[in-house]
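This week, work through this protein record:
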Amino acid sequence: VAKMATTGRAFQFGIEAEYLLADAKTMRPVPYRELKFSVLNDLLESIPLHDLPSREGLLSQPPHRRIMPYVVEGYHLPDPFAPTPKLIPKGVEIRTPVCRSIDEAAQLAQELAVRLQNRLHDFGWIAVALSHHPEEAPFAGPQGARSEQGWRWAQQAMLTFGPDVNISLPDSIQARLNPNDLVAKVNFYAPAMTLLTLQAPLVRGKLWRQAGRVGKSVRTFRRSQVGEAIEFHPLQPGRLEFKCFEMTPRFDDFRAYLALWLAVLLDDQLTERTDRAALIRDLQIASLEGLANQQLFDRAAALLQSAEQALGRWDFDPQLLAPLANRLQSGRLPADDIIDWFEAQGSIPAVLNHLAIATTECPDSGATT
């Protein structure tokens, strides 16, 4: 049980997770050209939700017709600000309502994912947790009213799939946060946080190679220049969203992601700060070298040690970080598993088969298996 503020809002948690769609028989990724918003939206609206908790915190997202914990993800035409935008789908997303504990958020994310997977099977599809499309060519779409950076990111995002973890702090803690200082803090620690989740070493049907070596994440490398690490939400004051983690088929990983983000927000002993240029540089180094980079390895080790202590001080369970600590100890990232699978089996479908949402959780809470 976490310590709560004596007055005002308590801790709140939420998970958003995007999934790639594959053909359930062949396990080949479904090209976005073959996906239709109306078909996917009807599918999502047909998933039973009557026995789930409230939809607190979920917002309407045109062109969807209902507020629900599922959305079709993709590229809005002409842009997301249009009165009646259209959508080119890339996949689907689950998003939990506001939850009062990390475990509640992870359990609800898993339940939503299982229900999604079961419904997709009726249509011959399967949801896969991979952070970058393993085959698709770069996407080009109209800019519309997007900013230059927003346009670049929206096009890049058509090839990527990521989890966003959301935390709202009690009012008394939130009031002490300085947004500019928090951004500078995240700039320094985000590469170490992201490092332990990298799992996108495939692009255009092959392993992603840079300078003669196989990299760990083409997603992190490409999004580093155009994607934000943290997002503030004016319409939902207090919601702090971390956006750099990579996808996972394991729901214990989502617990670890929320716990690490919470620790970074709460830990006053994390005193390092830096600018966006350093964030971009370190994210790209992480995406190329993974745990082989000693400086980032040491930063991640120090961060996890501090995070365990911070969680303990606030009566959160430090063991929530175990999946990330196990990766650091073993020296293996989820990307390393994907690389091994691809090198051993030589096919994208074989890799995707390992990354499909399971209907039950794996017993081991360590590295992806």
In short: The mean pLDDT is 93. The chain has twelve helices and eleven strands.
